[in-house]
């Protein structure tokens, strides 16, 4: 293998590893079809059982969360398995705090904050999708 081939292989390999999980830039979610929830941050999910919210949430989750939390929320161990979140208000509160503010430990960003990128409707729609996948531990 000549030097140019080796360089090309190195660039290809680096690109595959760098972008293997897709873009890590948070993506906005289209929430048309959901009733607006207002400017005040809610403590409880207003879309429980709402099929449209589940569909929108599935798309939002796939675009923004699956790269770390796994497809269909089946975590590979990198991030918490969100299927096991408490299905009640405790789970709602934990979910909203993490999705809004992200997670930082010892100065390292483990999850970016989504407040300002996703609106409250999108966040609750993602929570609704996760509820549809809920499993007891």
UniProtKB/TrEMBL annotation:
PROSITE patterns: CYTC
UniProt keyword terms in alphabetical order: Electron transport, Heme, Iron, Metal-binding, Transport
Gene3D superfamilies assigned: Cytochrome c-like domain
N-terminal signal peptide: none
Pfam families referenced in this protein's UniProt entry, alphabetically: Cytochrome_CBB3
Domain of life: Bacteria
Annotated GO MF terms: electron transfer activity; heme binding; metal ion binding
Residues in coiled coil: none
Ranges of residues in domain Cytochrome c: 52-134
InterPro entries assigned to the protein according to its UniProt record, in alphabetical order: c550_proteobact, Cyt_c-like_dom, Cyt_c-like_dom_sf, Cytochrome_c550/c551-like
NCBIfam families: c550_PedF
Protein name listed in UniProt: Cytochrome c-550 PedF
């Amino acid at each position: 293998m000549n030097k140019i081939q080796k360089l090309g292989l190195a660039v290809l390999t680096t690109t595959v590893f760098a972008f293997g999980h897709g873009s890590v830039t948070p993506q906005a979610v289209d929430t048309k079809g959901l009733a607006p929830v207002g400017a005040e941050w809610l403590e409880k999910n207003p879309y429980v059982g709402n099929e449209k919210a589940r569909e929108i949430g599935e798309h939002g989750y796939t675009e923004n969360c699956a790269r770390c939390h796994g497809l269909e929320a089946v975590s590979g161990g990198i991030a918490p398995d969100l299927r096991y979140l408490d299905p009640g208000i405790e789970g709602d509160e934990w979910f909203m705090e993490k999705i809004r503010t992200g997670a930082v430990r010892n100065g390292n960003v483990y999850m970016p904050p989504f407040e300002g990128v996703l609106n409250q409707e999108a966040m609750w729609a993602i929570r609704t999708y996760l509820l549809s996948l809920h499993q007891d531990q």
